[in-house]
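Example record

The entry below shows one chain as it appears in the dataset: sequence first, then structure tokens.
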Amino acid sequence: TSGSECDSEVKKPIPIRPPSSRVSPLRNKEYHRSLSCEPTPKPIIRQRSHSLPSTTQKKKQCRNVGVRFVDSLGLDLEDIRLFKSGEDPFVPHHVTFRLLMGAELADGRHLEISLPYMKPFFSQQPGDQPGFLHRLREQKVCLERVLCFELGVIGITQVINLDFEKDVTARYSFTEWKSCTETKASWVSTITKTWEGGGGELSCDTFRFHLPVPPFLQPGAELEFAIQYKVCGAEYWDNNDGENYKLVCHNYKLTVPKECEDSMVHFI
């Protein structure tokens, strides 16, 4: 065969297209997910909470609701109150105080407030009176002195040290003993008192108590109190020889500085 015939018999090469560099969007997303640290998102599964009642349970709960009237409990269905036409309404003292104070401020006057303080009926402190130690040995408990200030009354009491366990209480009243209140005294110290003339020594305990004074107590009101001492199963009293210790209420005027008036209005 000739060379021309051999060339015609050789097949021409078929051109092959190189693979495309494009990647499908799905595979591209999977590739980026594999490189990221975020977890693969999962579909949200909605599930009913176990604590929520079902619809049938709701119906049962609604059926159990009942209505009861107060007359079934022995009470009255209505409350009727009658007011006389001539009766003046009661206005609390602190409300009246604010109204008067506001009127003074509106007129441009300096604000004055009245503060109560208690003053003892007795002129001399019991502990300074002659024969105090004798009374203390006889009664086992005696009021020594009274200190008065705006927020109340402080009492100092002496008791004979008969035992370690003891209880001292002050019983007081602002209503002439129509009602009364008690406050417990707190221990302060143990001291030894010497009789005048070398007649011996007494081991005593000092107690302290506080009697609060109402801020709107009217002038002339009286505070009465007595002291109770319990020790070794026995009970002792100091009631001022049956007269009780008495203090009377007085008021004094206090002028408030101009720069403090606004704060006083909010304080009251």
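Notes for this example: The chain has six helices and ten strands. The longest helix spans residues 93-106.
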